């Protein structure tokens, strides 16, 4: 009994070794073409198509307003009126708030009174100068006739020169008071806060009755007729991005909406710590849907073609570092491996630059194939017309052969 068991074990071990040798020989002979015939492999296929293709990179960033500023007073005082609240539309020159201006009006009145005094002093100085000038001419005439002495003439000249100095002083006083009045009027104007640019009230910081110091924020204004998406580019993609490239923007708040924009600015340097560069995308926001602070996904079109030879990206295989596809002629269901040169590559589709392949390509089951392997095609795989540039319309509309 024990001897039979040993014989049985030996037979099983020998059978396993024979199977291993057969499999090894089959693999080395290229799937058994020279020794044992390999069975046909069931595969899924798709057709080579002609149509448009785009290479797209996706970036993430945040929405920012085109511009943003804070309205703040240049003078101190208590707010007596606030005309805008958050979300209100603000036009250029609109009054945002008013500050109690009683003290500033009083300063204007004082400056006006001081100016009148200075102007009166100037008028008096001009009159005195006219008198001293006439007196000088009279004494000079008498001195020429020998009636007046030289001392009297010198005294008249001194009096005239002194009066001219007083006139200049009076003129300077008038200029000083005019400048003081202008300064008081400017400070009075500062009590009315106006918007220098149009936009929307984004944030309100104070209410009526608040006592403000100079430069204290009152309200922030944002311009969102056009928005900016700020994002970053990694070093690998830096050379692929150019100013002017078209983009498509999506936000989580409106998942069904697509917003078209373009690359507006690219930083001329990469941050040393992150190896990333800043990028800005400008997007028209006529409907005012995009709001600052939203999370945005940006698709940048790096390259596009209107007519290209396209295969599904899953049809590509790598053999010895070379990309290729398995091409099948429906009349002869045998897989033929063809090395290819690719152009634009997307997760779904790949452009084939050369050679000019046509017909069917294997999209599932390539790992079981070798050059010349027999295949089993899905039902109806060879019944559609071969995809040519003239027939691109039907194929691009979805008339693909499916198992």
How do the strands and helices of this protein lay out in sequence?
Layout (H helix, E strand, L loop, with lengths): L1 H27 L12 E2 L1 E4 L1 E23 L5 E6 L6 E2 L4 E5 L2 H43 L5 H40 L2 E3 L4 E6 L6 E2 L6 E16 H4 L7 E6 L2 E13 L9 E9 L10 E18 L4 E3 L2 E8 L2 E8 L1 E5 L3 E6 L5 E5 L10 E2 L15 H5 L7
Parallel strand pairs: 1-21
Antiparallel strand pairs: 2-20, 3-10, 3-14, 4-6, 4-9, 5-8, 6-7, 8-10, 10-13, 11-12, 11-14, 12-13, 14-19, 15-16, 16-17, 16-20, 18-19
Features:
conserved putative lor/sdh protein from methanococcus maripaludis s2 fold; alpha+beta; rod-shaped; six-stranded antiparallel β-barrel; five-stranded antiparallel sheet; 5 helices; 403 residues
Concise structural overview:
By secondary structure, this protein is an alpha+beta fold.
Structural notes for this entry:
It contains five helices and 21 strands. 30% of the residues lie in helices and 38% in strands. The protein is of the alpha+beta class and 403 residues long. Residues 30-36 and 385-403 have low confidence and may be disordered. Among the domains are: 32-52 and 306-396, conserved putative lor/sdh protein from methanococcus maripaludis s2 fold; 101-187. The chain is rod-shaped, with a radius of gyration of 46 Å. The chain starts with a helix and ends in a 7-residue tail after the last helix. The chain has helices at residues 2-28, 102-144, 150-189, 235-238, 392-396; strands at residues 41-42, 44-47, 49-71, 77-82, 89-90, 95-99, 192-194, 199-204, 211-212, 219-234, 246-251, 254-266, 276-284, 295-312, 317-319, 322-329, 332-339, 341-345, 349-354, 360-364, 375-376. Strand 15 (317-319) and strand 16 (322-329) form a beta hairpin. The longest helix is centred in the N-terminal third of the chain and has 43 residues, at 102-144. It has a six-stranded antiparallel β-barrel. Strands 2, 15, 16, 17 and 20 form a five-stranded antiparallel beta sheet that branches.
